[in-house]
């Protein structure tokens, strides 16, 4: 949710890193973001769950990768 919210607001996501157990927004805002970004019209709860699970895994791997670390990469992959 935090990544999607910042993406919609135009923030640079290259410098954002999720902090465990941090809470932002309401459950209604979270659901609205998932509905906007899941890519399925009128998704089922199962489709939303799969979307959030997949996004979470991808973002966790991205944060753990040295190749996505702006301090390591510097500006060579800006916007990638």
UniProtKB/TrEMBL annotation:
Protein name, UniProt field: RN213 ligase
Keywords, alphabetical: Ligase
Source organism of this protein record: Dromas ardeola
Gene Ontology BP, a term: sprouting angiogenesis
One MF term in the entry's GO annotations: ATP hydrolysis activity
One cellular component (GO) term of this entry: cytosol
């Amino acid at each position: 949710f935090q990544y999607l919210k910042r993406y919609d607001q135009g923030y640079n996501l290259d410098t954002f890193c999720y902090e465990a157990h941090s809470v932002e927004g309401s459950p209604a805002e979270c659901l609205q973001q998932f509905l906007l970004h899941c890519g399925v019209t009128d998704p089922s709860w199962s489709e939303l769950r799969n979307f959030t699970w997949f996004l979470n895994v991808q973002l966790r791997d991205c944060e753990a990768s040295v190749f996505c670390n702006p301090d390591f990469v510097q500006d060579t992959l800006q916007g990638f």
